[in-house]
Amino acid sequence: MLISCLRRWYFLVIGLIITGFITYFAFVTVSPTYEAKGSIVLIPPAVAVTVGDNPYLYLGGLDQALGVLQVKVVSPEIAGPLTDKYPGANIAIAKDATTSGPIMSVAVSANSPGETMELLRGAMELVPTTLGQLQKELNVPAQSVIASMTLSADLEPTIVAKKQIQMTAIAAVGGLAATLLLTGFIDRLMSRRREKKNKKDVNSADTPFGPMQLVAGQAPQSEPLAVNDTGQPTRPAAERATRRSGKRQHVPEADSDDVESSADVGT
User: Fold this and answer.
1) Three-state SS for 117?
2) With contact defined as beta carbons under 8 Å apart, do 35 and 160 qualify?
3) Other C-beta atoms lying within 10 Å of the C-beta of residue 127
4) pLDDT value at residue 82
5) Separation of alpha carbons 69 and 223, rounded Å
6) Where are the alpha helices (DSSP H) in 95-161?
7) Cα–Cα distance measured from residue 161 to residue 145, given in angstroms and rounded to the nearest whole number
């Protein structure tokens, strides 16, 4: 892969430029979100507190009321109208898991700082309003009404860029991987085409006796010349075969004296 990228560096540069544009586009398109949090505690009614005691000592019996309030606040008829004002906004209201008291944690998120803070204020106001409506529907006496109090609320939202970073990283890594793979694939294709073209050029080199096959590092060999008894060169075998096919050669007959002398020598 490294050799292919070095050989086809111009494809690699083009792919990196395109990857840079895609990464920048992903970073700009996916904007960060903003988050803000707050917490509210329920206060026991006056009849549940002994005269002169601290109300915070009687928080243990409000967990059931907190559960009912949580279900009511996050219902679509209560939280729906508030989230509809801000597209993409989200409200999360639940019991605070870090403490055993009747404390409700409120977390909101939106696409801009201003919307986030307005959404947090609206969500914090929903809790006491909904708590009062629930007790009013049951005709709870004034001395037995459970109250609420805000413990904390963010003054400025927190930037959450997790989604933006994830999308940007995916675009960068995906574009780089695609560039490397595509460069290697193009290099392999071009190398194969070049090899086929070289083989075709070698096989197309014809000679009078057909196509000549060349071996790398070797020159074409010609047929060696034959020499007769007198020391003079004779014609090549291919040429002799051609001449014999066209004209029949005359072979002189041997003399009878030569035959007899040859027989005597053989005996």
Assistant:
1) helix
2) yes
3) 22
4) 85
5) 107
6) 113-137
7) 42
pLDDT at 170: 92
d(C-alpha 147, C-alpha 132), whole Å: 8
Q: Which two tokens stand for residue 113?
A: 């700082």
The radius of gyration of the chain's CA atoms, rounded to the nearest angstrom, is 50
Q: Give dist(CA 26, CA 223) in Å, integer.
A: 72
User: pLDDT at position 216, please?
Assistant: 47
- How do residues 79-124 score in pLDDT, each as one tens digit? 888 888 888 888 888 888 888 888 899 999 988 888 899 999 988 9
CB atoms within 10 A of CB 64: 9
d(Cα 136, Cα 183) in Å, to the nearest integer?
Answer: 72
> How many Cβ atoms from other residues are within 10 Å of residue 26's Cβ?
19
Distance CA 62, CA 42 (A): 7
Q: Report the alpha-carbon distance of residue 18 to residue 77 in Å, rounded.
A: 48
The owner of tokens 């002799």 is 240
Q: Could you give the 3-state DSSP secondary structure of residue 139?
A: coil
Q: Which whole number is the average pLDDT over 136-145? A: 86
Question: Which two structure tokens, joined as six digits, stand for 24?
Answer: 């920048």
Q: Residue 34: what are its φ and ψ, rounded to 5°?
A: -125, 140
Question: What pLDDT score does 266 carry?
Answer: 45
Closest CA relative to residue 22, chosen from 168, 179, 182, 163: 168
**Assigned token pair, 185:** 């694939």
Tens digits of per-residue pLDDT, 54-90?
Answer: 777 777 778 888 888 888 888 888 888 888 888 888 8
Token reading at 73: 């606040």
Identity (one letter) of the amino acid at 227?
Answer: V
Q: Are 8 and 86 in contact (CB under 8 A)?
A: no
Q: How far is CA 232 from the centre of its chain?
A: 79
